[in-house]
Amino acid sequence: MKDYTLWTLSWAICAIVLLFSSHGAWGLIAGSEHDFSTHAWSEGEICLPCHTPHNADSNIDAPLWNHEMSTAIYTLYSSPTMDVIADQPGAASKVCLACHDGTISIDSFGGMSGSISIGGNADVGTNLADDHPVGIDWNHQTAGSACTTCHPIIWVDSVAIMTFPPTPMFNGKVECPSCHDPHNGFDLPHLVRDTMAGSQLCFNCHGDK
Ligand code: HEC
Ligand code: HEC
Ligand code: HEC
Ligand code: HEC
Ligand code: HEC
Questions:
Q1: Which atom of ligand 4 approaches the CA of 128 most closely?
Q2: 133 lines ligand 5 (CB under 6 A)
Q3: Is the Cβ–Cβ distance between 190 and 179 less than 8 Å?
Q4: Spatial contact of 95 and 66, defined as CB atoms under 8 Å apart
Q5: Per-residue pLDDT tens listing for the chain (209 residues)
Q6: Domain extents in the chain
Q7: Which one of 30, 32, 87, 125 has the fewest CB atoms closer than 10 angstroms to its CB?
Q8: CA distances from 28 to 50, 91, 124, 191 (A)
């Protein structure tokens, strides 16, 4: 990518960020499903079960990580109609599975050994064969739609700029945070990154299928 393209792109991103942050419905983690501060086990804090300002676990590929990690080996989704093969979940999914695979107590953070299990629907378990695959390569060739289906063009000072869907990849792969924002930045039920009305979240990657 040429330098000037990056330059205009970063300005476009600033413009988009400004546009969104002036929007009243922009979500906050406070009050969301990931705000544990009303539960005694969180010590009344929001960030602490996941992050700590000091003595974080620097082996984990997530900022200032504070939660005990799972060592589970997962049963993976497989399908003859998929172009790609699912791998064990990558680092970006493993931080979610630290609580959501049900093998580690949610209150096992900051070096403490907890006792409260996540339970209910939020426990996705170690069998991921019945879940949308993660740890899979994002292969644009499988999309079969025009670029602008998923990357609408916006005009900034007469310059055409390609926009990006709100569903990011991690090391080029689909992982749990491709569809969910742990901080509730999009203010939607189930912490998703785009609305499920009309299955819009899915179209970000599956195009006009
Ligand atoms: C339930 C777990 C969880 C909670 C609670 C949580 N975070 Fe995070 N946070 C994550 C994960 C996972 C990532 C890395 C993945 C990502 O960026 O989406 C992250 C990334 C970050 C980052 C770096 C990337 C970014 O998005 O800016 C910052 C800064 C951050 N968190 C701050 C906070 C603060 C401040 C709080 C409390 C108000 C908080 N987080 C609460 C899980 C959590
Ligand atoms: C510190 C433990 C912890 C971590 C780490 C964590 N979660 Fe959660 N998460 C929870 C708990 C506890 C709930 C609330 C469950 C409930 O309401 O019963 C929850 C709720 C959710 C929900 C909403 C469930 C619903 O019923 O709508 C989603 C979606 C979710 N988490 C996804 C993620 C993803 C994706 C990540 C990683 C980016 C992540 N979580 C990391 C503990 C965690
Ligand atoms: C079905 C939807 C879809 C279609 C069609 C599509 N993209 Fe993407 N594209 C995405 C998603 C989702 C991402 C990941 C977004 C992110 O990383 O923030 C992405 C990322 C990208 C990136 C960033 C680098 C990368 O590979 O992650 C580029 C460049 C890109 N697309 C170009 C294109 C071009 C050029 C076309 C047409 C030939 C195209 N895309 C068609 C959905 C699509
Ligand atoms: C392809 C997108 C996608 C991926 C990848 C994904 N999720 Fe979800 N997840 C969703 C959607 C959409 C919902 C809401 C389902 C609904 O509306 O009924 C959801 C719901 C949930 C819930 C709420 C409980 C439930 O069953 O409804 C939890 C917890 C959750 N996801 C955790 C995870 C974890 C952990 C990962 C990674 C292993 C993950 N998700 C990967 C899209 C995704
Ligand atoms: C972040 C990008 C992304 C999002 C968002 C997404 N998917 Fe996927 N999904 C993929 C990729 C990549 C594959 C693997 C495609 C392949 O290799 O053929 C896949 C695979 C699948 C498969 C399995 C196909 C097979 O042949 O077995 C189904 C079904 C599916 N997705 C449905 C959904 C639904 C429903 C949603 C919305 C809730 C959704 N996806 C959202 C990226 C995504």
A1: 38
A2: yes
A3: no
A4: no
A5: 333 344 444 444 444 433 343 334 568 999 999 999 999 999 999 999 999 999 998 888 889 999 999 999 999 999 999 999 999 999 999 999 999 999 999 999 999 999 999 989 999 999 999 999 999 999 887 777 889 999 999 999 999 999 999 999 999 999 999 999 999 999 999 999 999 999 999 999 998 76
A6: 3-206
A7: 30
A8: 16, 24, 24, 10
CB atoms within 10 A of CB 92: 21
Both tokens assigned to 71: 């060592």
Residues 29 and 51: their CA atoms lie apart, in Å, by 13
Closest CA to 145 of 201, 202, 199, 206: 206
In DSSP terms, 160 is beta-bridged to: 155
Beta partners for residue 155, in sequence order? 160
Q: The whole model's pTM is what?
A: 0.93
Is 174 near ligand 4, meaning CB less than 6 Å away?
yes
